[in-house]
Amino acid sequence: MNRETVIYLAGFIDADGCISIGRHKAQKRKYPSYQPKLQVGSTSPEVLDLCRTTFGGNVWPDTSKHGNKAFYQWVIYGQQMRKALLALMPFLKLKKRQAEIALELHRRIEEYPKRIGHALSADEAHEREKLHQRLRGISSQLPLAEPFDLRRRRGRPRIS
């Protein structure tokens, strides 16, 4: 894995990426299941293909939110996500804490006994929900960029 590529992708993911935990409640289960994921959307399929070739995952076109403009998504889960976040972690600035939480959930999922018909304990379900809520709380507190006013850039006074 090329260090410069990883550093570049860390900046890209810090700016445009999303580290989240999907929560799915199945009808037959007492507790929801949780799945951490890393995803990035962009109008540039080339940079997403660089994510895919570096870390794995999938890239596909997404027209659901962007009308006629070509838009693409890269998504990664599981062990590939774990390896990607571990490589990116030293270079992440804004999303470092989110990556730590996603990795903690991934570790809990991997370490929990996987037996057919073995339900999650109430304590484990509670811990996973806490991680889910913590990540959601961090995401809502990330700083937003200041709006850029083109009129001000051109030397004209800002009109409020």
Question: How do the strands and helices of this protein lay out in sequence?
Answer:
Blueprint: H1 3-16, E1 17-24, E2 33-42, H2 45-55, E3 58-61, E4 72-77, H3 78-88, H4 96-111, H5 122-141, H6 150-153
Antiparallel strand pairs: 1-2, 2-4, 3-4
Description:
The chain is α+β, with helices and mostly antiparallel strands. It has one domain (3-142): Homing endonucleases (Endonuclease I-creI), CATH 3.10.28.10. 48% of the residues lie in helices and 18% in strands. The protein has helices spanning 3-16, 45-55, 78-88, 96-111, 122-141, 150-153; strands spanning 17-24, 33-42, 58-61, 72-77. A 4-stranded antiparallel sheet has the order 1-2-4-3. Strand 1 (17-24) and strand 2 (33-42) form a beta hairpin. Helix 3 (78-88) packs antiparallel against helix 4 (96-111) and helix 4 (96-111) packs antiparallel against helix 5 (122-141). The longest helix is centred in the last third of the chain and has 20 residues, at 122-141. It is globular and about 45 Å long. The termini are far apart. Residues 150-154 have low confidence and may be disordered.
Short structural summary:
This protein is an alpha+beta fold and 160 residues long.
CATH superfamily: Homing endonucleases
Briefly note the structural class of the backbone.
Answer: alpha+beta
**Strands, total number:** 4
Shape: globular
User: Any low-confidence stretches, pLDDT <50, length ≥5?
Assistant: 150-154
Main sheet makeup:
4 strands, antiparallel
- State the assembly state of the protein chains: single chain
Helix content: 40-55%
Distance between the termini: 49 Å
Q: Mind telling me the C-alpha Rg?
A: 19 Å
The CATH topology comes to Endonuclease I-creI
Q: What is the count of helical runs?
A: 6
